[in-house]
Write the structure tokens for this entry.
Amino acid sequence: MRPPPVIRMTPDLSIVVPCYNEATGLPFFHERLSAHARKVAEARGMRIEIVYVDDGSRDQTAAVALALKPQGTDVQVVALSRNFGKEAALMAGLDHARGDALLFMDGDGQHPPEMIETFVGLWKDEGYDVAYAIKADRMDEPAARRTFVKIFYWLLNFGAQSRIPEDAADFRLLSPRAAAALRRLPERNRFFKGLSSWIGFRQKAVPYRPAAREHGTSSWSFLRLLGLSMEGLTSFSPAPLRLAGMVGAALAAAAFLYGSWIVIERLVWGIPLPGYPSLVVGLMVIGGVQLLVIGIMGEYIARILSEIKARPVYFVADHAVRHAEAAGDRPVGLELPKALP
């Protein structure tokens, strides 16, 4: 007689963790995350899974993740074929997560797992659809970086119908209907913070202070942050094009006023026309602005080309799911009645 089949229930919550070169600290992080996830699952009567997405790490992150043992929660590992970027890793986690609700957090340990209970409480008890972490302050960061962040969010929200909260992190929980709405968005050039704000529903900010990294170093250099900022602006906001148009209009108005003033000086006061220096400066300013506008338009055209090509956002090299009962933890699923002999 064959053993009775087991019906595996769909998780109530999937915790998606994108990872890049986190092999050293991932086991310790998994211990902390599993402990808090198990605590929430037992208190709420929920079933939780953790989805690790390795974004083509150059170290042994994928192998370490595949070796992690479930500790009261299912563990799913999605290893991408190469480094596609964090937005692609978040999308891979979104596609492979089996849970009704989703929670996204980084795998470097700076997003405290203790906040999972707070997020779940806002969803279950207070009816919020999106609970997101927001930095309490940036006083521990250099002044140049704080200024850059303020300029970025000002550009991002310039003329926007749906404002994106400043200093919001990817660390956030989406209720089942918010997660379903996010899954319906078809674009390939994605900006997760913007899209999760754009879908609407009831949203709540939760202040937090990022913990210090205990293992490894951050892979986010200034150039990578600048590239991510450009990708976010051009894939989500038309602000650069609008500002370029405003700059062009301002230059045209200034040129008209300056030309009128030269004519008045010549006809009324007999002042001779300015020489070559003013002409060269004017050409350089106009030429520089034109090149800037062309470059901005090129970024948008590149995004359009990417959407038209419709290439897959990522490819999966390895995929594994380990259920909690396989590690000797609490049983999950319902057993069917035994068949008659």
Q: What stands out?
A: The beta strands are 6-7, 13-19, 48-54, 74-80, 101-104, 130-135, 168-174, 203-208, 316-322, 334-335. Residues 326-341 have pLDDT under 50 and may be disordered. The first strand starts at residue 6 and ends at 7. Residues 276-309 form the longest helix (34 residues).
